[in-house]
Amino acid sequence: RETFDQLAPQVASLPTGAPQAEAQFLMGSSALELQEFPQAATALEAASKADPNWQQADEVLLAWAQAERMQNKFDGARAHLQELLKRFPKSRLLDRAHYRLGELAYAQEDFDAAAAEYGLVLAGWMAPLAKSAPRWRDRSDREPAAALPRRTAWRDQKGDLDAAGQCHGEWPRLHHRLR
User: Fold this and answer.
1) Directed axis angle between helix 57-69 and helix 94-107, to 10°?
2) What is the pTM of this model?
């Protein structure tokens, strides 16, 4: 806490732009960790104003939303998260923003909105998995396609993972971890 108090005046003397945004972000993040939410919100707001297009501006908005949420300022928190989604559609923090929007909706007993936001988190996690999943091969020359799931399930129950994998074609990349 002492370090925080000593740095605050020095941070204000930094040039505006990225240096000011970064320093205020670090101050705000530190205050958030110390659970000093009003101070965190003030510093994170200053970071956002210092350089709205700073390379970590999405992180600023996410942290600022958390500081607002912890003060029960749900509308402010929601606004920061929605701004993050709007301004940074390719951010690596989208799943966290949707999750936090779900938390806000749940806290306000808007369960439909919460479920929708949590669904977006799951969709974000599932999309990369679906792209990397092995493709089914055409096995019409060997056996009816309907027989494949039955044969695979039987072989899986017997513990014959290699045989079960051969029914599906190439075994997923995680096969080696199962041994």
Assistant:
1) 20
2) 0.67
